[in-house]
Structures are given as structure tokens and as C-alpha cells.
Amino acid sequence: DNEDAAYSKEICVESIFPVDQEVRMCISQAANSVGLKEIPNFQVEMGEEIDWITKNQESFQPVEIAERLWIVPEWTSPPVAEAVNIILNPGLAFGTGEHPTTKLCLLLLQSLIKGGEAFLDYGTGSGILAIAALKV
Asked: Which residues form the signal peptide (predicted)?
């Protein structure tokens, strides 16, 4: 039947394993978990060696929140030394200062905090809002 000929009976799954990982055992467990009686054919290739920490760090640059408020990754120098510079080790999702909600909260803090107020950063990720409340 022509309709069946359009669909392949093969599935290609790609995965990344640590160099010391027993790949055959992982594939055997995966195959077993979906009810396969035999280990499917597989091929192992060595990938390019990448320094993921450096690659990740290269993606983060200082972020200007307001005229005198910057979020600066700890591995770079503040672009404006006399500004309020929040030095952080940004994570993958939170703490970079780039998310619109974080920027808005930082701008609000800058306009509301006059000094001496109590502040709670509930649900702290990187602590960026608490640090900003202390420094602005």
C-alpha cells in the first residue's frame, strides 16, 4: 500500500553520554523500558570537545538596567565603574537581568527604595532583587 511506504520503520535517536558512560548498558535499559526484546543497532561517535563553561560565559555580557544600574557577570569588568554594579554569576535561566520581569522589578526597586526599608526577595534564584534592594 503506497500510504504505508511513506513512513519509515526506523527511528533515529541521538544522545550525548559522558566519555566514561557504558553506552551499551544505557541503550539496553532504554530498549527494555519500551518493550524491545533485543538491543537495536547503534553507533557511537566521539563529539567535538567543547569547554561549556567558557562557551556559556561568552554569552553573558553586562546588562544595563537603568542609567546607573548594571548587572555584571563576575568574570567581566563593570562598564561604568561609578554606577551601581550588581556582580553576579548568572545562571541559565534566572539572574542575568535580561528577563523583562526582572528588569521591570529592578527599575521599580530603583524608584521605590530610598534607604532603610525592609525587603524580602521571596523565591530567590540568584538573589538579584535582594542584592539590588541593598545596593540602590
From this structure: none
